[in-house]
Protein: tRNA-2-methylthio-N(6)-dimethylallyladenosine synthase
Organism: Desulfonauticus submarinus
Amino acid sequence: MKFSVITFGCQMNVADSNWLILSLQKRGFTLTLKEKEADFVLLNTCSVREKPEQKVYSEIGRFRKKWEQNPSFFVGVGGCVGQQIGEGFFERFPYVRLVFGTDGLYLVPDKIEELLNFPHKRISLLSFEDFYPEREKVFPEKADVSVFVNIMQGCDNFCAYCIVPFTRGRQKSRFKAEVLTECKTLVERGAKEITLLGQNVNSYGQDKYGDGTSFAQLLREVALIHGLKRLRFTTSHPKDLSLEVIRLFGELEVLCPHLHLPLQVGSDRILKIMGRKYTKKRYLDLIEKLRLARPDISFTTDLIVGFPGETEEDFKQTLEVLQIVEFENAYSFKYSDRPGTRAEKMENKVPEEVKQERLIRLQALQEKITQKKYKQVVGKEEEVLIETISKRQGGTNLHFRGRDLWNRVVNIESSRDIRRELVKVRITEAKKHSLVGEVR
Ligand code: SAH
Ligand code: SF4
Ligand code: F3S
């Protein structure tokens, strides 16, 4: 029996899909990248922006012919749109036989077996659990060299624009022992880099479902794992970033000098309406403290333009912070209405043209900064963890792709296979979103 998994959205979805694939493989199902050959297809969806429902509908629509030819074929829809639309998918598509949210994910492999045994059944797994649903422990024999480990589920922050607290439920921290076991197993099986994942990792352990471990304590313990070379985490909320965690950037050797710290906007007025609970000054203070703790630290961020009521003055505050901090990179988005959020109900929406124009200005500024930062690296020597062999090959050498300590993508040529290795590299060129290097 063959299956395919299609994944949209954030790294948490990627991690969820990876688990799902391993768990299904353990039960004897075969993963295929050719959807045409699949007996069932699972979609792991994202609803953070725009009209993702439409995209998911058209994705599911692609399989109608296949189902007409083979009535036992079915589709399962999970992730944030799965949670949001739920059984609505059953009404629209006769061949959607499973809908699930992230809290229901751990049951999916069992339920797939049930669906295969009962061809007329449809199953929805949409209830939120009041604990972190531990999943079957399945690990690949050989782990990827860089892996994600989930440390929590959900979010309690309810930023005015954001749908995540509705689609992923309340924050539920995973027990420290479970996180450590997973990290250790992955390192034993060859992982060299771990990224701890959560919507707001800085408040790890502090919800009523957690075991009380602080995020700093968790970092300390993961950092001790023998054989681990690099440790990262994402996403951090500035309001919960503690001094203790900041200090760890200067203390833990394996903690990489890069932090993704979403700013969203630079205007205090808008930050307040968004409910972000920090000011521009507090954000800049954090950046300064982080630089004191680890002078070579680099930053990336998330930005939103055109939040309801955002004026040109407000927008300029965002540009100002970009210039002060000099992020290596920024993921910038036009504000988009999400159902059920506070911002959706606000009246003073910013016109599309204004949002578009601000986005272009912001991205132009950021590109300049990124180029400046990347050019500073040219000529330097650094260590790159090789993750993959590039899709595009050519010439006499092999082409590889990896990341440096600062999470920058580096493309490298080498005459021998250097996959999974930490190699010393000299940076020779700065491209728009990546660097080029040569092995020393
Ligand atoms: N938990 C993380 C990220 C969640 S979603 C955090 O708090 O930082 C990732 C990013 O999508 C957010 O940082 C934000 O910049 C963007 N985003 C979320 N909702 C959005 C919306 N309604 N419109 C535009 N961008 C949005
Ligand atoms: Fe969304 Fe805010 Fe939670 Fe991030 S912290 S997931 S932006 S509600
Ligand atoms: Fe998208 Fe859900 Fe992640 S909305 S960004 S898949 S938390």
Q: What stands out?
A: The domain at 2-125 is CATH 3.40.50.12160 (Rossmann fold).
